[in-house]
Amino acid sequence: MRPFVDSAKVSNRGCSRPLQRVVTDFGADVAFAQVEDKLVEHYGILLAPSTIRRVTETHARAIYAATPVDGTWPVDAGSETVVVEMDGGMVPTVEADVAQKDRRKGKQLQWKEAKLCLAHEAGSKTLSYGGTLQGDAADAGKQLFGCARSAGFGKNSRVHAVGDGADWIALQVEERFGGQGGYLVDFYHVCDYPTAASTAIHPGTEMSKAWFNQQKERLKAGDFAGVIESLRAHIETDEVADSEAPVRSCHRYLSRRKNQLDYPGALADDLPIGSGEIESAHRYIVQKRLKLPGSWWCAENDEHMLALRLNRANQQWENYWNQVRKAA
Fold it and tell me: Which of 51, 110, 119, 287 is deepest in the core (most CB within 10 A)?
């Protein structure tokens, strides 16, 4: 009997490869309990949520281990311009108390930052994604470089990076791409500062709106010096706390980022001045599965599930299952 079972490649309480693929595909998108219902509805197969979870997380772990990042400097010329974006977003995780025999007890709920990045050739809609949950800023920078490589970054390429102004993102762009990279602070994020300053300078609604619109046009035209000068006479005294000093905060923010505000250059080259692409990616890659209501993951499993969703977003899904089939 045993030779027959072995030749049929059937294992006790196991799932066939086609079924594993279906389970993992569903499990990548919806809660494991919902996968149980989908399997019954579409295939007439009943699996316990615990089995669905085990199968999905097993393949997520394998995908994570089999997804290297290309960190070598390119030798080909590459695309003329590659657009890259990176941003962080918080996801819930749970850490079990190892001292407890019952792992349901003594759990600690924590929030960790999922660092997501994307890249594409200028003018292209084909995106390359990367990301890390447990990694630090340097690990996120490696992912960003790998994304750029996949999107066509070469030894002669120019990198146009857009971010929300976080210092760690600008630093990684500088470290990974050197003189070939340029970093632009998201225009709409920058506008939050003169918006707050406008209500302090001109409490009246109409005057406040007119002043803000003037500064916004100045920023788009590259006249950040004019914006800074218009703030100077209204800067709060040192006795006022930063939280109550929007004009001083705006002046300081713009003064420290003069080399990250080249909006005229980006607009002239038809390049983005906002980071909406990466903010949207956080919603449809990270939040759609990893921030479901009541869903708290172990950080390690969270990292693996992120790799699974990135694999599908990068259209590497078929390649992975071909490798599984060959290895069987």
Answer: 119
